[in-house]
Amino acid sequence: MSIEKMISLHPDVRGDLDEALAKAARHAMLCSLFCTSCADACLAEAMDMRQCVRTCLDCADICASASHLAVRRTGQNVAILRAQLELCIQACETCAEECGKHDHEHCRLCATMCRECAEDCRQALASMH
């Protein structure tokens, strides 16, 4: 099962699938889950991880929203989608920077996922008409 297949079945898409946008949607959804998991793990750490928790949860919400907007193909709202993808890039970069400050494996994984998601969102922006 793939999100690309689901999107391609939409009557307004009819095979004209934006592969980069579909990839960004999938990565943003995964990034949201990674950030949520990292925030939860940060809560269990003995040290004060409040800023990392906040940054991860903000990023998780923004990524989830970006993934939702990216798979909606009825009508067009390119300006809003572009703005959301740009916000997703900013949130991912901020989260990667914050997680990069900590020597926890969950933070390292989260930072890597955030960097990958930001790159996919950049590619999706470049592919949009």
Task: Note the topology.
Elements: H1 3-8, H2 19-44, H3 50-71, H4 78-99, H5 105-127
Helix pairs in contact: 2-3, 2-5, 3-4, 4-5
List the keywords.
129 residues, single chain, Substrate Binding Domain Of Dnak, Chain:A, Domain 2, mainly alpha, elongated
Structure characterization notes:
- The chain is an all-alpha fold and 129 residues long.
- The chain has one domain: Substrate Binding Domain Of Dnak, Chain:A, Domain 2, CATH 1.20.1270.360.
- It is 77% helix and 0% strand.
- The protein contains 5 helices and no strands.
- Helix 3 runs antiparallel to helix 4.
- The radius of gyration is 15 Å and the shape is elongated.
- The chain starts with a helix and ends with a helix.
CATH fold category name: Substrate Binding Domain Of Dnak, Chain:A, Domain 2
CATH architecture: Up-down Bundle
Q: What is the distance, rounded to the nearest whole angstrom, between the alpha carbons of the first and last residues?
A: 27 Å
Structural class, judged by helices and strands? mainly alpha
Relative strand content: under 5%
Unreliable stretches covering 5 or more consecutive residues? none
The CATH first-level class comes to Mainly Alpha
Helix content estimate: over 70%
Q: What is the tally of beta strands? A: 0
Largest beta-sheet characterization = none
Task: Name the overall outline.
Answer: elongated
